[in-house]
User: Which sequence fits this backbone?
């Protein structure tokens, strides 16, 4: 799968941005996308961001992934719920990213199914919609 492309969906209520990635997810593309996606989510005040990796190949090293996490953390509101959907072979990448974001103060989780992700969002005490 050469290159990386993405699609963006928003929930009907405007609370959740869902980004699906396709292709080779290398560091350069991932770093740029982290900024672009974060700016989009922040400007529209989404309360949650779901990144779906199930159709891409993860090509970053751990230090590169740390830089990607830092770009998300620098641009998103710390109340943004950050969810990674992943295949079983992407578990290490998902764990690394969500832990880095969690250390930065974000509510971040990783799931293998969209249903589990949506259940987690629904179970939160506060609405994913940001205020102020």
Assistant:
């Amino acid at each position: 799968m050469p290159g990386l492309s993405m699609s963006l969906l928003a929930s009907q209520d405007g609370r959740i941005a869902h980004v699906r990635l396709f292709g080779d997810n290398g560091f350069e593309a991932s770093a740029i996308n982290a900024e672009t996606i974060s700016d989009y989510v922040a400007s529209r005040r989404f309360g949650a961001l779901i990144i779906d990796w199930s159709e891409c190949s993860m090509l970053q090293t751990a230090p590169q992934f740390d830089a990607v996490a830092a770009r998300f953390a620098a641009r998103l509101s710390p109340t943004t719920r950050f969810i990674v959907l992943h295949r079983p072979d992407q578990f290490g990448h998902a764990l690394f990213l969500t832990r880095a974001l969690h250390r930065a103060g974000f509510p971040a989780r990783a799931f293998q199914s969209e249903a589990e992700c949506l259940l987690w969002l629904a179970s939160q005490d506060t609405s994913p919609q940001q205020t102020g």
Strands lie at 4-10, 16-25, 48-58, 81-85, 108-111.
